């Protein structure tokens, strides 16, 4: 199994200088981009540059930086809603996915799309796909990835599929959206050169089955790429221990498990791809700090975005799961997330979420 090292050409061993350098120079010298196929040791080695910045004095969530999300051209009449505890959820296959599909969540996904682009140095995919013609984005959400891919590869036809019709109406002519359940049998008449899935760790009951469907729907030599966070969040020291944030993470993930969804399988993507028959499987590790606590401009930017994402997402992530799976009332969830919010903006908690990008190739014979 090949190990890709994106550190090549780098002479400095200073963690902070790697982070700053990476911001300017991109993947070839990327401080937070470590890749390989050797599991947790690869993930651990990627932590070298997470060093606490004791001098940082930014107090606001975005540290004076404005995070902008674009205004989507969405006709609200295309929504199918299920109303529950002040949020809305998808109607097709009602109850299956436990995060909302309302304007608040759309806004968070748009922010997160920007966070992914910053994380991957403006790349949409790390797989070495040559001249893609047919591309599929499963669980496309607001379609940001699919639209951007269609813009960058005008000769490709890009399909985005999702349970929720929350995609914009006006999209590039080579981009189409479909309402579909990725856990149903795939009936596409064409084979794809690239199948992509991002931030889907909370989605599937049986991710291995979805990965098998993707394998069967790729051309020989085609790629599957999964980009995700790895739950739960962690810390580089003991500052997360005993916090409301830690408690919330534990009970939310446990409640999802009780509802039949493991939210922890993204750490198994390499194994799942290999078991499905993919070859040359590569994993790349990144981290999103919970705030501006680490040194280095790149880490601080990632921290500002992830903090804002968390602040917008606390309720999205846990309202349905805790009320449906752990017997919480809406008020109790809001009370708890109000406490967690304080931890999210507390720079003395040195927490981060591991981020992984895994891709593999379908053999040519
Ligand atoms: C966290 S969002 C990520 C959206 C998008 N991939 C992104 O990165 O912006 C997860 C998306 O997966 C969709 N989803 C969940 N379960 C699904 C399923 N079984 N089939 C298709 N889409 C699903 C949800 O509706 C939601 O839009």
UniProtKB/TrEMBL annotation:
GO terms for molecular function: methyltransferase activity. It comes from the Eukaryota. Residues 1-39 are annotated as: Disordered. This is Secondary metabolism regulator laeA. It comes from Lachnellula cervina.
């Amino acid at each position: 199994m090949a190990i890709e090292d994106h550190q090549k050409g780098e002479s400095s061993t200073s963690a902070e200088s790697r982070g700053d350098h990476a911001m300017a120079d991109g993947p070839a010298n990327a401080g937070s981009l470590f890749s390989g196929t050797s599991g947790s040791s690869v993930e651990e080695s990627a932590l070298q540059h997470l060093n606490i910045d004791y001098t940082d004095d930014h107090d606001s969530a975005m540290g004076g930086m404005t995070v902008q999300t674009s205004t989507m051209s969405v006709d609200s009449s295309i929504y199918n809603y299920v109303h529950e505890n002040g949020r809305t959820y998808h109607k097709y296959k009602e109850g299956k996915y436990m995060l909302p599909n309302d304007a608040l969540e759309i806004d968070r996904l748009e922010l997160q799309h920007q966070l992914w682009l910053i994380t991957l140095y403006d790349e949409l995919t790390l797989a070495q796909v040559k001249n893609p013609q047919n591309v599929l984005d499963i669980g496309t959400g607001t379609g940001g990835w699919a639209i951007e891919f269609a813009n960058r590869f005008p000769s490709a036809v890009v399909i985005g599929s999702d349970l929720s019709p929350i995609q914009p109406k006006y999209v590039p002519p080579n981009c189409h959206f479909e309402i579909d359940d990725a856990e149903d049998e795939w009936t596409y008449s064409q084979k794809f050169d690239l199948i992509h899935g991002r931030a889907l760790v909370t989605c599937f009951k049986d991710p291995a089955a979805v990965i098998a469907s993707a394998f069967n729907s790729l051309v020989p030599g085609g790629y599957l790429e999964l980009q995700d966070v790895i739950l739960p969040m962690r810390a580089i020291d003991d500052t997360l221990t005993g916090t409301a944030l830690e408690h919330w993470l534990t009970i939310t993930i446990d409640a999802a498990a009780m509802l039949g969804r493991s939210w922890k399988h993204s750490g198994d993507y390499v194994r799942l791809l290999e078991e499905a028959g993919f070859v040359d499987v590569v994993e790349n590790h990144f981290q999103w700090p919970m705030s501006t606590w680490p040194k280095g401009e790149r880490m601080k930017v990632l921290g500002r975005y992830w903090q804002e994402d968390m602040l917008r997402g606390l309720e999205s992530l846990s309202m349905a799961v805790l009320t449906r799976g752990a017997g919480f009332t809406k008020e109790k969830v809001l009370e708890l997330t109000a406490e967690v919010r304080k931890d999210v903006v507390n720079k003395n908690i040195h927490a981060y979420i591991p981020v992984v990008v895994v891709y593999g190739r379908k053999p040519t014979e």
